[in-house]
Write a structure and sequence with these properties.
The complex is a heterodimer of chains A (255) and B (308). By secondary structure, chain A is an all-alpha fold. Chain A has one domain. Chain A is built from eleven helices and no strands. In chain A, helix 3 packs antiparallel against helix 6 and helix 3 packs across helix 8. The radius of gyration of chain A is 20 Å and the shape is globular. Helices cover 33% and strands 32% of the residues of chain B. The longest helix of chain B has 16 residues. The relative contact order of chain B is 0.13. By secondary structure, chain B is of the alpha/beta class. Classes of the chains: A mainly alpha (255), B alpha/beta (308). The interface between A and B is medium-sized, with 23 and 29 residues.
Chain lengths: 255, 308
C-alpha cells in the first residue's frame, strides 16, 4: 500500500506540472465562465439552465481530461525510461499499475472538485443562490471519468498514444449512443446467433448515459441515493474490469 | 565465494508487433558473477547487453533458461530491495529536485524518511552534486543526471549494484571519480555488475568479464586469465640498440622500442636466450613476466573473429 500511495502522489504532482493539462483545464473553466451571459429567462429557469449547461460542459471536459491524464502514464514512462528506475526497486508491477491509476483518479477528482466549486460560485454570484446540489452531478461525472480513464489506461498497455486517444473517443461516443440507435441496430434488428452476439457486445459496453444527470440536477430534483449507489457499483465494476485486463497485459509486458 | 548472479542458457526473442518478425536478442547465454567482485559485460552495439541487464532485473522475461540473483529466482521483488540500478542515460521526473527525487526513490526502496535524508546528503556529496539546491532535474546537464543516477542507485545501500554505461556523459574527472566509487563499493564487500563500451574503464576496474556478441557469450572469465597469452612472456630491457631488431627477431614474436626501453614478446622457452642476447647488446634487463594483451586487443580479436 505504501508504494501505491507514493506512486499515486507522484502522478498527481506530475499531472499538475504538465502544460497541456492546464490548457485543457483553463479552457474548460473559460467555457463555464460565460454561462451567466446566457439568455435572461426568469430566475428559476436561469438556475435550471445554468446548472444543466455547466454540468454538461463539465462532463465533456471531465472525459477529455480523463483521456489526457490516463494516456500520459504508461507509454510516456516507457518512452522516457522513467519506469526502469521504479520497477528496479522493490515495487511489484501490480503496485505500479494500480498506484499510477489511483493517481489518475485522484487527479481527476481534484479537477472536478475545483470545477464544481467554480460552478457553485458562478451560480452564487449570478443568481445569489447557493446550489450544492451541483456536486451530486459532479460525482456522477467523476464516476464516468473513472470508467473512461480505466479504458484508456487499459488501451495504453498495448497501443500507442494516438491509437488509444482515437479508440477512447470512439468508446465515449459508443457508450453514449448505445441505449438509443445502437440498441435498435445491434440487438433488435439482429436475429439468431447474431442477436446473441450483439446482445453480449451490447452489455459489455458500459452505458455512460447513466451518468448524465444534468437535467435532473438542473431541475433541482437531485439524484436518489439508490440510483447513485447503483451507478457507483456499475462504474466500479467496469473500471475494475479494465484494470484487471490492463494489468494482465502489463504484467507480461517486456519493458 | 558464491555466485551473486547466475544465468543459465537464457534465450530471449522480441517480436515486431506489426510484421511478426522475430529478433533474437540473447541466445543461450550463461554467466556467473562472483560475490564481492566487479564484473564487466562487454559487447558491440546490439549484442544484447541491455537485454541481459533487463533479464537480471526482471524487466524482461526470458523465453527459456533459468537464473537467480542473490539466491532468488529472476524477477523476485524482495531481491530488488538489495539491488541498485543505474540505467543507461537515466531519465528522472524533471519536476523534482535531487533531494525530492531521492526521497521518492528511497521510499519506493522501502527506506524511512530519516534514513533517506541522511544517505541523500552523503551520496549527493559523494557524486559531486550540490545539496539543498532548488534546481530541478530537468535543468541538469547530462553529466549531472548521470551523477544523480549513481547516487539514487546507491541509496538503499545495495549488495549488488548494476550499472549500464556508468561513465556515459561524464568528463575525464567524472569518469575517474566513478571508477573510484566502483572500486570503493568492492572494498565495502559489494558486487558490481557493469555494462560498458569503455574498455579501458573495464580493464582498470573489473575482476572478470563476459564478452557477448550477437546475444551469445563468446569469452568469459577472470580478466587476468583472458588477457594473459599462454606460453608467451614479455621481456623488457632498459636501453635501446640499433642491432636489437636484427638480433631478437629470429627468436622473438615481436620486438619494439618505446621511451628508451626495448620490449620483446617471446615464447616462454626462449626467454633465457633473449636475456643472454640482450646482455651481449649492452641492454639492462628490467622485467620478465607473462605477456598480457590489452582488453581492446581481446575485444577486437573476438568481435572481428580474427586472431592477432
Amino acid at each position: 500500500m505504501r508504494n501505491i500511495a507514493f506512486l499515486a502522489l507522484n502522478v498527481i504532482a506530475d499531472s499538475f506540472r504538465k502544460k497541456i493539462f492546464y490548457v485543457v483545464f483553463l479552457f474548460g473553466l473559460a467555457m463555464l465562465a460565460p454561462s451567466p451571459l446566457l439568455p435572461s429567462f426568469e430566475l428559476g429557469l436561469q438556475l435550471e439552465f445554468l446548472r444543466d449547461v455547466s454540468l454538461s460542459l463539465t462532463s465533456l471536459f471531465g472525459a477529455v481530461l480523463a483521456v489526457i491524464v490516463a494516456v500520459a502514464q504508461l507509454p510516456v514512462e516507457i518512452e522516457k525510461k522513467t519506469i526502469y528506475n521504479i520497477l528496479s526497486k522493490p515495487v511489484s508491477r501490480l503496485e505500479y499499475y494500480v498506484g499510477k491509476f489511483l493517481g489518475v483518479i485522484a487527479t481527476l477528482a481534484i479537477i472536478l472538485i475545483v470545477m464544481g466549486i467554480e460552478i457553485i460560485l458562478l451560480i452564487y454570484f449570478r443568481l445569489k443562490t447557493f446550489s450544492p446540489i451541483v456536486f451530486e452531478g459532479i460525482f456522477l461525472v467523476f464516476l464516468e471519468s473513472c470508467v473512461i480513464a480505466g479504458f484508456c489506461y487499459f488501451l495504453t498497455t498495448f497501443a500507442s498514444i494516438p491509437v488509444s486517444v482515437l479508440a477512447a473517443i470512439f468508446f465515449y461516443v459508443l457508450c453514449h449512443v448505445k441505449t438509443g440507435y445502437l440498441y435498435e441496430k445491434l440487438v433488435e434488428d439482429a436475429s439468431g446467433a447474431l442477436r446473441i452476439i450483439a446482445w453480449s457486445v451490447y452489455y459489455l459496453i458500459p452505458n455512460l448515459e447513466n451518468y448524465n444527470v444534468s437535467q435532473q440536477v438542473g431541475y433541482g430534483h437531485g439524484v436518489p441515493f439508490g440510483y447513485v449507489a447503483r451507478v457507483f457499483s456499475y462504474a466500479l465494476l467496469f473500471t475494475a474490469l479494465f484494470i484487471f485486463l490492463g494489468y494482465n497485459v502489463f504484467r507480461r509486458k517486456d519493458l | 565465494m558464491d555466485n551473486v548472479i547466475l544465468l543459465e542458457n537464457i534465450r530471449k526473442t522480441f517480436r515486431s508487433p506489426m510484421l511478426r518478425i522475430k529478433r533474437t536478442a540473447i541466445s543461450d547465454l550463461s554467466l556467473g558473477v562472483r560475490e564481492n567482485s566487479i564484473f564487466g559485460l562487454l559487447g558491440p552495439n546490439g549484442a544484447g547487453k541491455t537485454t541481459t541487464l533487463k533479464v537480471i532485473l526482471g524487466l524482461v522475461s526470458p523465453d527459456s533458461g533459468t537464473g537467480n540473483v542473490l539466491g532468488k529466482p529472476l524477477g523476485s521483488k524482495s531481491t530488488r530491495a538489495r539491488i541498485g540500478f543505474l540505467p543507461e542515460q537515466p531519465y528522472f521526473y524533471g519536476f523534482m529536485t535531487a533531494e525530492k527525487a531521492m526521497m521518492f526513490y528511497g521510499h519506493l526502496a522501502g527506506l524511512d524518511t530519516e534514513t533517506i535524508r541522511n544517505r541523500s546528503e552523503k551520496l549527493l556529496s559523494l557524486v559531486g552534486l550540490p545539496i539543498g539546491s532548488h534546481l530541478t532535474l530537468e535543468k541538469y546537464s547530462k553529466g549531472m543526471l548521470q551523477r544523480f543516477g549513481i547516487a539514487q542507485a546507491l541509496l538503499n545501500d545495495p549488495d549488488l549494484v548494476i550499472m549500464d554505461e556508468p561513465s556515459s556523459g561524464l568528463d575525464p574527472v567524472g569518469q575517474k571519480e566513478i571508477r573510484e566509487i566502483i572500486i570503493s563499493l568492492k572494498e565495502r564487500g559489494k558486487t558490481v555488475f557493469l555494462s560498458s563500451h569503455q574498455l579501458s574503464e573495464v580493464e582498470s576496474v573489473c575482476d572478470s568479464v563476459s564478452i557477448i556478441n550477437s546475444g551469445r557469450a563468446v569469452a568469459q572469465g577472470q580478466l587476468d586469465d583472458l588477457l594473459e597469452v599462454k606460453g608467451v612472456s614479455l621481456v623488457t630491457f632498459t636501453g635501446e640498440s640499433e642491432r636489437a631488431q636484427k638480433v631478437f627477431s629470429p627468436l622473438a614474436r615481436k620486438v619494439h622500442t618505446e621511451n628508451g626501453k626495448t620490449h620483446v614478446e617471446v615464447d616462454a622457452d626462449k626467454v633465457y636466450e633473449i636475456i643472454t642476447s640482450g646482455k651481449e647488446l649492452g641492454l639492462y634487463l628490467q622485467t620478465v613476466g607473462p605477456f598480457r594483451k590489452t582488453l581492446e586487443d581481446l575485444f577486437m580479436e573476438i568481435v572481428r573473429g580474427q586472431e592477432i
